[in-house]
Design brief:
Helices cover 41% and strands 20% of the residues. By secondary structure, it is an alpha/beta fold.
C-alpha cells in the first residue's frame, strides 16, 4: 500500500504541517491502495510565500527563457509516460483509449504553450502608446479528479507561458497521480518556488488560496457549485478568475445524418472518459421522424459496449471514481425511470460479469423531455438522454434551454448547414462530427459553465494584464 506523506513547496518535497490522512482506492476493485497526508492552511501559506518570492524573477524572464522551461517540462513528462499511465490506471481506472490520450496530451500542452509564446506579441505599439502584456501576479490552480495529470500540466503550462509562479491544489482523490506527475515536473528543473503543489481539502487548502491577498489569479476546473463559492471569495481581493465548470452538452443529430458514421461519434461524445467529463454530450436531440430508427441503432450499439478495468483492452468504459460517485449515478438512473423515461439500454446495478468495482451499466434513456432532471442536471456518468425534436429551430431551442453552455455537438452531412446550426448554439465550443480537438483553440463555457477561456492566446491572456505606456 502506497503512503504519500510529502507535498511540493519551493522546489522540494517536504513533509506537510497538516496531519490528516485520506484513503486512496482502486475503483476497479474497491480495494484501499494507499493513504495521503493532507496539507493544511499553514502549508498553503508556505506555498504562497514561496511562489511570491519566485515571482519577481519569473516576471522578468524573456519569451525565449519561458519556451526553454516549457520544453524541459514537456520532455520530463514524456520521459515518465509509463509511470504516469500506471498511476492513472490504478487510481482512476480509465479505459485504455483514454489512457492512451491522456499522458501524451499532458506532455503536449507544454509544447502548445511554447508555440503560443513564440507567436504572441507581449509588446505592441498602438498609436503613440506601447502596450505591454505583463503577468497578472502569483497564480493558484485548483484541479479535479477526472483528469488530474492533464489539468495540472495545462494550468502550469499557461502560468509558465505568462511568466508567473503558481500554487496548485489537486484533488485529494488523485494523490497517486499527483505524486507521479510532480516527480516528473520536478525533474524539469524549474527555478525554486515557481511550481508548488499542496494536497488538501478544498475547504481547507482551496479556501486559503482563494482568500489570500498574495494570490492574484485563480484558475479552477470543477463543479459549478464550487466555482460559485470561489468566485464570491475571490471577489474580496479582486482576484482575476478563470472557471471551467459543469456541462450538459447537447448533440444535435440532423435529419441528413448517416447513422453508420454518426452513432460511433454519439457514443464517443456521450461516454467519453466513462461519462466523467464536463464536455460529455449527454443530451441527444433526434429528428422525430427518425426517432425509432436512431433508438434501434443506439440500443444495439450501447449493448455492445463493455465496462471493465483498465487492464482489459476490450473495456470501453471504466469505473466511477468512488463509491459516492457510483451511488450518485445510480440515483439518476432510478430518477429517470421515476420521471417517466424509458430505458433503451443499461439500467441500475453493475454490468453483467462485474461483481466488484464501481462500474456502471452504460445507460440510454428514450422518451426524455428537456424538463426532466436527467436532461437538465449534470450526472457525470455514462448516461445518455434521447430527446425528439420537430425541426431545426426546435432543436436549437432545446439545445440552448439549459443553464450550461460548455461544449455542444452537431452531426450531419451538410457542412454549411452544420456550421449554421453551430452559430446558433450557446456554447463555448461546438464540435462538428467529432472533429479532433485543436489544442490552441479557446476552451471555456457560456452561462453556468464558467468564466474566461483556457488554451492558446486566449488562455494566455487570462494570466496577463495590459499596461499602456503613452508617449
Amino acid at each position: 500500500m502506497k503512503a504519500i506523506d510529502q507535498i511540493y513547496i519551493d522546489g522540494a518535497f517536504v513533509t506537510p504541517h497538516g496531519t490528516e490522512r485520506f484513503d486512496l482506492f482502486n475503483p476497479a476493485t474497491e480495494e484501499k491502495i494507499g493513504k495521503v497526508r493532507l496539507g493544511d492552511a499553514e502549508d498553503a501559506h508556505a506555498a504562497i510565500a514561496a511562489a511570491k518570492r519566485a515571482f519577481p524573477a519569473m516576471r522578468r524572464t524573456s519569451p525565449a527563457e519561458r519556451i526553454e522551461m516549457l520544453h524541459a517540462l514537456r520532455d520530463a513528462v514524456a520521459a515518465r509516460a509509463e509511470a504516469l499511465t500506471e498511476a492513472m490506471a490504478t487510481e482512476y481506472g480509465a479505459p485504455q483509449s483514454f489512457l492512451a490520450f491522456s499522458v501524451p496530451y499532458a506532455a503536449g500542452v507544454f509544447e502548445m504553450a511554447a508555440r503560443t509564446v513564440a507567436d504572441y506579441a507581449f509588446t505592441r505599439r498602438i498609436g503613440n502608446t506601447d502596450v505591454i502584456m505583463e503577468p497578472v501576479g502569483v497564480a493558484a490552480a485548483i484541479t479535479p479528479w477526472n483528469s488530474d495529470i492533464g489539468f495540472i500540466c495545462s494550468k502550469l503550462a499557461t502560468a509558465i507561458a505568462a511568466g508567473t509562479s503558481i500554487v496548485i491544489k489537486p484533488s485529494e482523490m488523485s494523490a497517486l497521480q499527483t505524486q507521479a506527475v510532480t516527480e516528473a515536473l520536478h525533474a524539469a528543473g524549474l527555478p525554486r518556488g515557481v511550481l508548488n503543489i499542496v494536497n488538501g481539502y478544498g475547504h481547507v487548502v482551496g479556501t486559503a488560496l482563494t482568500q489570500s491577498p498574495d494570490i492574484a489569479k485563480i484558475s479552477f476546473t470543477g463543479s459549478t457549485a464550487t466555482g460559485r463559492t470561489i468566485l464570491r471569495s475571490a471577489a474580496e481581493t479582486f482576484k482575476r478568475v478563470t472557471l471551467e465548470l459543469g456541462g450538459k452538452g447537447p448533440q444535435i443529430l440532423l435529419d441528413d445524418a448517416d447513422l453508420d458514421q454518426a452513432i460511433p461519434h454519439i457514443l464517443t461524445s456521450a461516454f467519453r472518459n466513462s461519462g466523467q467529463a464536463c464536455i460529455a454530450g449527454t443530451r441527444l436531440l433526434v429528428p422525430a421522424h427518425r426517432y425509432e430508427e436512431v433508438s434501434s441503432h443506439l440500443a444495439a450499439a450501447v449493448s455492445a459496449l463493455k465496462a471493465g478495468p483498465s487492464s482489459d483492452p476490450a473495456s470501453d468504459i471504466g469505473p466511477m471514481v468512488s463509491a459516492k460517485q457510483w451511488e450518485r449515478v445510480q440515483s439518476y438512473i432510478r430518477l429517470g425511470q421515476e420521471e417517466g423515461a424509458t430505458l433503451l439500454a443499461g439500467g441500475e446495478g453493475r454490468p453483467e460479469g462485474q461483481d466488484r468495482g464501481w462500474f456502471v451499466r452504460p445507460t440510454v434513456f428514450a422518451g426524455v423531455t428537456n424538463e426532466m432532471r436527467i436532461a437538465r442536471e449534470e450526472i457525470f456518468g455514462p448516461v445518455l438522454s434521447v430527446i425528439a425534436y420537430r425541426d431545426e429551430a426546435e432543436a436549437i431551442a432545446i439545445a440552448n434551454d439549459t443553464d450550461y453552455g460548455l461544449q455542444s455537438y452537431v452531426l450531419g452531412t451538410d457542412v454549411d448547414r452544420m456550421r449554421r446550426v453551430a452559430r446558433e448554439l450557446e456554447a463555448g465550443r461546438v464540435v462538428l462530427n467529432e472533429a479532433p480537438m485543436d489544442p490552441r483553440a479557446p476552451f471555456g463555457g457560456f452561462k453556468h459553465s464558467g468564466i474566461g477561456r483556457e488554451f492558446g492566446a486566449f488562455g494566455l491572456e487570462a494570466f496577463l494584464e495590459p499596461k499602456a505606456i503613452l508617449g
